[in-house]
Design goal:
With 151 residues, this protein is an alpha/beta fold. It is built from six helices and four strands, in the order H-H-H-E-H-E-H-H-E-E. It has a four-stranded mixed sheet with strand order 2-1-3-4. Helix 3 crosses helix 4. The radius of gyration is 22 Å and the shape is elongated. The termini are far apart.
Length: 151
């Protein structure tokens, strides 16, 4: 009896190990599994999420972006800020994304937060800002974003 149970236990252990390795939240197959179980609308790539945010949720005018609580000395924060800035500008062109009063040269996430400027009504009018998007660091694995319409 023990001889017939061992192969089944080994197979069950192998399947469990494969599931643990392949279906943790950062694994690519996790997204595929979500797609199969919940449908395509749930599984959006980070680029698709940004595209949706900038094109569909903020469809007109220029956008003011702020990063509250992000630390550009952290690699993942710096990369995320640069991704939002560059992808956003790419997606909404010819509209613009602003992070400060003047247009600083932005090469990475550090420049995004270097010139912290408060958005005033006069500056908003001058730059044609219609929307403000405020990003906050991840809580429970999700980056928070608050969108507010100015006009």
């Amino acid at each position: 009896m023990l001889v017939t149970a061992v192969p089944s236990l080994l197979l069950a252990t192998a399947v469990l190990c494969i599931c643990v390795v392949n279906f943790h939240p950062k694994a690519r197959s996790y997204r595929i599994g979500l797609f199969l179980l919940q449908g395509p609308e749930v599984v959006l790539t980070p680029y698709e999420q940004l595209d949706n945010l900038f094109n569909n949720q903020m469809p007109s005018g220029n956008i003011w972006v702020q990063f509250e609580g992000f630390r550009p000395e952290l690699k993942e924060h710096k990369g995320f800020m640069a991704e939002v800035y560059f992808r956003g500008n790419y997606v909404i062109y010819p509209r613009r994304i602003y992070v400060s009063d003047s247009s600083p040269v932005v090469n990475d996430g550090k420049e995004v937060v270097k010139k912290r400027t408060l958005l005033t009504p006069a500056l908003s009018e001058k730059l044609g800002i219609h929307w403000i998007a405020v990003f906050s660091p991840p809580q429970h694995g999700r980056i928070r974003v608050k969108v507010r319409r100015l006009r």
